[in-house]
Amino acid sequence: MVRSDARENRARILAAARAAFTEDGDTSMNQIAQRAGVGPATLYRNYPSREALILDIYQDEVGLLIGSVDELLATKTPVEALRHWTTDLVDAMRKKHALGAALSPDAHKSITEQTYGPVIAAITRLLDAGKSEGSIRADAEPGDFLQLTGALWRAAPDRSQPILALILDGLQK
Hints:
- This protein folds into 2 domains: 1-48, Homeodomain-like (Arc Repressor Mutant, subunit A, Orthogonal Bundle); 50-171, Tetracycline Repressor, domain 2 (Orthogonal Bundle).
- The chain is built from 9 helices and no strands.
- It has helices spanning 4-23, 29-36, 40-46, 50-67, 69-75, 78-99, 105-133, 142-154, 157-171.
- Helix 1 (4-23) crosses helix 2 (29-36) and helix 8 runs antiparallel to helix 9 (157-171).
- The termini are far apart.
């Protein structure tokens, strides 16, 4: 069982690192420790490398994204839920790409393998909700949709929503 102070330290480290990397992708581990209000030893005990910290941030973001599906489907139409969720997915993909220089090719592969299944499962739930409701085409495939989102994070930020609108228009009956 992890002590509550250890959980709090880890949460502070993640929050500080997320904020720091958003501002400057080259933030040092020592700067993150200072920002989190912990000593370097505490930081390195939790995250032995910068890569481990970045991977945990990304895993946490994907977990939040996956966990948002139920609430989105409860409060929005399936198409609007998919639009909102995809916008968040694209933001997460952009963050991962921005931090990518700090990750080894093996880490990129590992994080992709770890997140692919849960992301496909979330897309499947969103598409299935629309198919059941009759607003999304029966032949819409989660893997195809995920490939299309790759174009969104590579697009200029002001083009993401118009491109997403085209994708969603193509999915609708």
